[in-house]
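Subject: Transcription termination/antitermination protein NusA structure
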Amino acid sequence: MSSELYSAIEYLSEEKGIDREILLEALDAALVSAYKKNFNSKTNVRVELNENDGMKVFARLEVVDEVTDDQTEIALDEAKEMDPSYEVGDVVEHEVTPRDFGRIAAQAAKQVVTQRVREAERGVIYNDFMDRVDDIMTGKVQRKDNRFLYIHLGKIEGKLPLNEIMPNESYDIHDRIKVYVTRVENSGKGPQVFVSRTHPGLLKRLFEMEVPEIYEGIVELRSVAREAGDRSKISVYAENPEIDPVGACVGQRGQRVQTIVDELRGEKIDIVHWSEDPVVYISNALSPSQVIDVLVDEEDQATTVIVPDHQLSLAIGKKGQNARLAAKLTGWKIDIKSESEAREEGLLDEDPDTFDLE
């Protein structure tokens, strides 16, 4: 092989980020294929690539007692004439390089090498993007069809399903957009990257990006419940009692959370304290409603929450949204009752104060 071809391999390796050995293996396979196709050969061959001596083709024949296929086998007696040490089962090689093989090989190998390079590139892209699953990427809207918005993410297009665009947003071609990578598939057409704007992970990653205390692990984001484009709840916790996890997420004058609200086109975000005590946690999760009491059924992972009469609608929320999000956030079933209803059912014997949120 000429030094020019080796130089080209080195260039491709650096330019495409493909391992040099992968390219050499692809070229080797292409040359074997070219030899068999152009010289109508069924013989097992090996191509030797050498920067100084060029290309050489060697036929490989198995040593046998009786030859049944002279293109793949050689008799033991004949092999011993070449080298007395040969035994049955050994492989004999001899050079069969055609005179004009270089020209033919170059033409025939081009397509095969191109295909292998493309496959290797796809492998590199797949591995790169597999590392980005559950992460946020920024891209530019390229085009749209009746199923997807296609986002340019550098080496590949991300597919954003139209039903995973928030209902309160729309995009034009060339708009820049932050997306959450949900999965990467390696299909026959190459790697496919699927992204979302409605996934709860998008909200989680936005807080990690915007709140240094979360990124550094000082504040933990324990749970996320989201109805994209409308309202979300997150629960946060800090092991250090001197740290206010909710305040860290809100930021000075609400700047941190407002940045995220703006990115999500006005989606409302409730930030509540996480607690291992389900009574406290569920009371916090139903914010901004006040809570009088929480009755816990550990066995069924269910609770009955009692709220002041005038707070019932607020606790339940529009179309049940506040209660639904609180249930998703905490993982508990939540049945909300007004104070007067609870008294009628005998769930409140005394006149307790409103539950203090922690």
